[in-house]
Every structure is written in C-alpha cells, then in structure tokens.
Write a structure and sequence with these properties.
Blueprint: E1 3-7, H1 12-18, H2 20-28, E2 33-39, H3 43-47, E3 54-58, H4 60-66, H5 69-82, E4 89-92, H6 97-105, E5 111-113, E6 130-131, H7 140-152, E7 181-185, H8 197-209, E8 213-216, H9 221-231, E9 238-239, H10 245-253, E10 257-261, H11 264-271, E11 275-279, H12 285-288, E12 296-299, H13 308-320, H14 322-333
Parallel strand pairs: 1-2, 1-4, 2-3, 4-5, 5-6, 7-8, 7-10, 8-9, 10-11, 11-12
Helix pairs in contact: 1-11, 2-7, 8-9
Pathway: Bacterial outer membrane biogenesis; LPS core biosynthesis
Subcellular location: Cell inner membrane
EC number: 2.4.99.23
Length: 334
Amino acid sequence: MKRVLIVKVTSLGDIVQALPVVADIKRAFPGVQVDWAVDEAFAEVAQWCKGIDRVLFAPLRRFKKARRWADFKSIAESVSALRAHRYDYIIDIHGVYKSAIIAFLARSSRRIGYQSQDLGERGAAFAYSGRFGPRPQCNAWHGMRISAGEALGYEVEGPPVYNLRLPEPAKPPFRGENAPVAALFHATSKDDKKWPLTHWAVVGRELAQRGFRVVLPWGSEGERVEAEQIAAQVPGSIVLSKMSVTEIAQMIDACALVVGTDTGFVHLAHALQKRTVMIFVATSPSHCGVEAPFRSMSVGDGFSVPPISAVLDAIDYVHSGPQAVAAQHRSAAA
C-alpha cells in the first residue's frame, strides 16, 4: 500500500473527529502516504494534522452560496491536483454527493463508501466500487475508524490519536494573564442547540468565583450581542474580538478549560486535549459526544435543556481530577 485518499469535506467538528483515521492507517501501513480532500473553508484544520501528507481543497461551500465564476474556476483547477496521483484506495467517510463526486474523479479502482442506508445522500452510491460494513453500534467518531479499518483490512486499536500541531501564534492569546482562562462557546449553528443565556451567565459567574478569567468568542453579529449579554453578568469576563479559525484554535490551546455546546470548536478543544465540557440540547451525546477520563465530558440527553448543576458537576469532573471526584463520592456515601 503506497497511497490512500480520505474524503471528509465538512464540517469543522466532523473533520476534527475523523482525523484519528490517519493515525490508524499509518500505524497499520508504515510508510503509506495519506492525502485528504476537504472544503477550502476547513483546509487549515486538515493541514494541522501531522500525519496528512497532502491536503486537497476547493471552495465548494462558498460556490454553493455565491455561484461566483472565480470559485467555479478554482474548483475546476483543483481537479488536476486531485488526479495527480493514483490511489490504492479512496475512503469516503462523508457519504454525500459532493464527497462521492470527489471520490469518483480521483484516480483509483477501489473507492469505498457507506452502505446505502448509512449514506447522507443515497445517490452518492454511484461512486463506489466497494462498501463498508453496516454502521457499527458506537459513536460516529469511532464508527469512522472502524469503517476505514474494514475497508483496508486492519483492526482499530487504542484511543483516537489526533496528532495536531497548530502554527505558533504571532503573539500569546492571553499575554500578561495570570489567571487560568475558561472559554465559553455559547454560540451554535442552529437555534435548537442553544443553551439558555441565563444558564451561561450562572456558569460564568461560578467560574469567575473559582478564579478563572472567562472569555467569550463569537462569529456573527448576533453571537457578539449574546456574548455581551453574558459578559455583562460575569465579573471580569471578556468578549473577544472576531478571530479566524486558526486564531480561535490558538486561543483554545491557551485555555485551561473549554465549555460549550455541540460545535466544531468544542470538538477541537477535546482533540487538543483541553479540559472540555460539551453541552447537548438537541443532538445525541451518545452519537456525537466527547469523552476522556477526567478530561472531557458530554452533558445532556439530546432531548431537553441540561440543568446548570449538571454542567457544574461536569466542570468539577474534568477540572478537579479523580481525587476530587472520589472525595465527592465519599461525601455522598457518608
């Protein structure tokens, strides 16, 4: 085996959680070249992974929104880069039309994708010469690892390895800040995934009382307004300036704690091995959650708004470590 192409086009959290497939393949086949096809909007995320040899990208999402000639030209030009090498295998772990088209255009006789019932768009099946087995009974992230292993004939071993290396920031994100920093990612792509602003304010105040400096990132104007509403109720908190994806990643890497809803940047915090609490309101924690002993924890059932107490308990779990949790259990039993 000389060269493999992984196709996972969007979005940020899904791409981050798919990266351990690269380490799995390189462990199973030492010396293999692993390329990755991704939307231009998330190309830098794939480029942070030390195991990826070549990142192929095109402005697919931007072209879909704006239909600009320049973006169409960039997509057309990207096809030649896609076809520059022949692949032993192409592994499509996305399973929609755009990923299937990429798999079909790339040069290989072995293009593996999901079974029809597991595809995001069933029409994507046209591109594949082989299929993964039925979707395994586990979370989506481990499922991608298993599917890739089935396609290439190896067993998945050990915890996920993300192998991320961020570029050095031009200046420290929190220069001169002595207190540990906690980032609250209150914003989401969908309103039904939001946790109430009043809840965020309570958690922010509690963290401030514990000695954290609370920071609030945002992406849109509406998110900035909400961040200011939270900050107004949390002493010493800061609404950050608008930042690029790389700048947010560097900010996360400088934090002691990240608390947020089911969003890409909170998945990135988990992958960067930060102490992470992810709040689930309308999506499935068993399917999309993060878990690592005394470091990352998912809160909520995906059908209702988790209480503040559950989030604070999760913060205690990830930040205080096993000794504090054991003490809590002893106290409860007394």
